[in-house]
Each structure stands twice: as C-alpha cells, then as structure tokens.
Amino acid sequence: MDLTVRAGEILALLGPNGAGKTTTCRVAAGLLTPRTGQVHLAGRDVTHHSPVHRSREGVLLAPEGRGIFPALTIDENLTLHLPDRTDRDAVYGRFPALAARRTVTAGSLSGGEQQLLALAPLLQRPPKVLIADEPSLGLAPRVVDEVFRLLSELRDAGTALLLVEEKAAEILGVADRVAYLSQGRVSWCGPRAEVRADRLTEAYLGIAAQPSGPGNRTEATRP
C-alpha cells in the first residue's frame, strides 16, 4: 500500500468489509507495526514509534465506536484533552448541549453526543493528523452532518485527515481525494471529481461491470 495524506486535506478511504480499512488506521496510528514498508510523518520515519509517541507528535486516532471514557463525566473527558479551563469554556460555548450536562457521565449520552464529545476538543487544539475510523457509524443524519462539519473545520485549520467510511455518499460530500481499498491494496486514488460509479462498484464488490449492448453479454470481470 502506498498512501499519502496531505496537510489541509481530507482523504476518504473507501472499501467493503474486510478490505483492510481498520488495519490501515491502526498501522498509521502505531497500534500495529508493519512487517515491511515504512510510515512517515512530515518526512520522518515513525514506523517504530509507539502510539503514545505518535500522539505527542500530533497523530490522533478517533476509533470506531467513539473515543471517550464512558465512566467519566463530560467535563472530566474534556479535561483530559483540554486542561485549560478557557479551552473547555470555548467548547461549551460552541456546544451548549454538552455544557448543560457537563456533570453527566459520558456513557449516558447518545451516540451522536458521544461522537461530538470526542471530536469537540480537537477544534481547540487541531492535531497534525486525524485518523477517523467510521466517524458516522450509528449516527442520525442530522448528527452526521454536524460531525462532517467539524471534520471540515479541522481540514480548514490545516489538519491532515484520513477518514474511513463504508457510506460513500456522506463522505464524498467533504473529501478532497478518494482512495479505494480492496483486499489490502489501494485499487485507485485520485481527486473526488474523478470518482465514477463504476469505480465505486469495483471498490465495493470487487468486480467491474461491462456495458451490455447488441452482440455483447453483460458480465463481471475480476480486477
């Protein structure tokens, strides 16, 4: 796999279940060490840097299933990211629903509120790289829109974002570039404007449909 995510850009990584999307996230975040190849951050080899080391260098992972501590309160969760009260007050000003329930345990929040709690601190201190694995998983459409607005703001602040999604429609609305992953390999990568329906079909089904017409059969070929 050869994949580059640039500062101030959203790269959408699409593919079916089992394609290797979560594994890619874990390798990029340092949770898995590749047997071969290298992981670079701003031109430096960080292949053998631990997840903690990479986090301190500005590489953050927003894992599938929310990145919060459910037994802690909203305010305690925010304090872990933002020890300065001024920063937390800025988050509460932006998200009054969190402010009104700051003493409530994060595990009692809805899935959408938990995702906003996980992402909100990043707006105050944008990371160099954010790796988000299925950020819209299980969320209502209204909350999905808000999540993608937050991710777009991080992009505008200069963060390099690698977003993994199975639902192509939502992520194609914010992505700058798109990569298709199939069986652990990038089958195509390019600007969002060049995404075609047949490429999307191939990425998700592993087949490329041939056009039907007089004298032609409609059949599927393996890429």
TrEMBL record:
<keyword id="KW-0029">Amino-acid transport</keyword>
<dbReference type="GO" id="GO:0005524">
    <property type="term" value="F:ATP binding"/>
</dbReference>
<comment type="similarity">
    <text>Belongs to the ABC transporter superfamily.</text>
</comment>
<protein>
    <submittedName>
        <fullName>ATP-binding cassette domain-containing protein</fullName>
    </submittedName>
</protein>
<dbReference type="Pfam" id="PF00005">
    <property type="entry name" value="ABC_tran"/>
</dbReference>
<dbReference type="GO" id="GO:0015658">
    <property type="term" value="F:branched-chain amino acid transmembrane transporter activity"/>
</dbReference>
<keyword id="KW-0547">Nucleotide-binding</keyword>
<feature type="domain" description="ABC transporter">
    <location>
        <begin position="1"/>
        <end position="208"/>
    </location>
</feature>
<keyword id="KW-0813">Transport</keyword>
<dbReference type="InterPro" id="IPR003593">
    <property type="entry name" value="AAA+_ATPase"/>
</dbReference>
<dbReference type="InterPro" id="IPR052156">
    <property type="entry name" value="BCAA_Transport_ATP-bd_LivF"/>
</dbReference>
<keyword id="KW-0067">ATP-binding</keyword>
<dbReference type="InterPro" id="IPR027417">
    <property type="entry name" value="P-loop_NTPase"/>
</dbReference>
<dbReference type="GO" id="GO:0015807">
    <property type="term" value="P:L-amino acid transport"/>
</dbReference>
<dbReference type="GO" id="GO:0016887">
    <property type="term" value="F:ATP hydrolysis activity"/>
</dbReference>
<dbReference type="InterPro" id="IPR003439">
    <property type="entry name" value="ABC_transporter-like_ATP-bd"/>
</dbReference>
